[in-house]
Amino acid sequence: MNKIEHIGIAVKDLEAANRTYKAVLGSKNYKTETVESEGVITSFFKIGESKIELLAGTNANSPVSKFIEKRGEGIHHIAFHVSDIKAEIERLKEEGFRLLNETPKPGADYKQVAFMHPKDANGVLIELCQEKE
């Protein structure tokens, strides 16, 4: 793992959250993107070398909507940049960690992603990110 790529924050109202984080960070988001396969719309803010990703569900059955319903708004995941996502998935499996998806899938911000089960990381959803080839 190379660095923290971003911190994902689940929000109910993306427009309101964009205004809040624009005020907090002193700059506006640089990108909004819908990830149909996950049922989310994302908004990215740059902060130094890292990013904040706001996530809002596009339907009541999306994982983010279910997260908010169960836990409320807040930190949803921490994403780590990796150089070789397939090798990192294998390494984590060998260490005994469960992955929610063992094959990388398309994610937001031009990334391939895979998620590690939060029960194996003290309740934190871990995302692995690599730039799309």
From TrEMBL:
The gene is mce. It comes from Christiangramia fulva. Residues 3-131 form the VOC domain. Keywords: Metal-binding. One of its GO terms (biological process) is L-methylmalonyl-CoA metabolic process. The keyword Cell division does not apply. This is Methylmalonyl-CoA epimerase. It comes from the Bacteria. GO terms for molecular function: metal ion binding; methylmalonyl-CoA epimerase activity. The keyword DNA damage does not apply. Belongs to the methylmalonyl-CoA epimerase family.
